[in-house]
Amino acid sequence: MKITAIDAFPFRLRPRREFKWTGLQLQLGGFVVVRVRTDEGLVGYGEATPLPDWGGDYGRRSGETQATVVAIIKDVLAPVLVGQNPLNVTAAVARMHRATVGNSYAKCAIDIALHDLWGKALGVPLYQLLGGACREAVPVAHMIGLMPDNEALAEAAGAASDGIRAFQVKGGENPERDVRLIRQLRLELSDGIVLRLDANQGYQDIKTAIRVIQTLAEVGLDFIEQPVMGLQAMAEVTHHVSVPVVADESCWNAADALELIQSRAADRISIYLAKSGGVQGAVRVAALGEAAGLASDVNGSIESGIGNAANLHFALAMPSVSMAAVIPVSAPVGTHPYHIGGHYYEDDVINAPFAVRDGMLLPLDKPGLGIEVDERKLETFRDA
Structure pTM? Predict the structure, then answer.
């Protein structure tokens, strides 16, 4: 089998409501779809969810946009992959790394498409290629964005009534608001709900972060995600607080994970397929975390059903991914199983909703990503 063409173009979904977090300048819903075509008629789908204003500690990871992802795929990555065997995924990923430095979102989109092709060629779902499922379902953590307290409380109550048992609450702009909201959520939600506050590096200095997190512990916070910027500052905070610290912006790939483990900068790792350049890179991050005894989650920029299918397969197969995943419950219009929980977009580009049970996503058991992409909708939602 040979790759005959790789095409990529942007598309956009309409969010159910506005979702924001510290540092985010754009609205969610912008994507790039990738199609890898072969001489045997098989097509693999991948996706990127680039953001220009998000890129890790101290600007070490450059932001990406729909336009830059499309250009890198068209001008740099596709030329080195066309003519190659798509099932030699490791070799293909190595070719991409030799062709360009960084550009992890563009690489991720192709990596996902190659894994989709691999599974389709063998007739097995992607999670089987990763060693098989090590859990029956993946619990979903619903994201509560930066919004007024009354809206945040209503969003949480609605998602909880859908069966969601974990929340990622965006914060970092106003410590007093963060403490106030977590206190209110803990009082109003039922027992057993997991509350995780994501500061997105928003607490500007170490002492402020320690003080705020100690107060958050008193009002019932379970996890704090990326309170400050940089491994040294993260390590200092982690050492002085009782709430487990989750690294996000500070841990993109396996090299970052190794430095994080050596510096003892966090207790958990938030894994994005895109940060790692795709499934292969994310597997390495998860393996390092597992070896060091650090649990992980799967997180992202709220993908469409294409990218989210890859998220789900990865979360099913990785032993260390034991935290609730901050990913959508993907579904086309009129078929979403939940009113609020995991419900971020009004519509999607897949033909059928993901199956859920008690706030958890169930496996996709068809070959590859296990989804059917609606090509008509892709064209309808194309972001020219």
Answer: 0.97
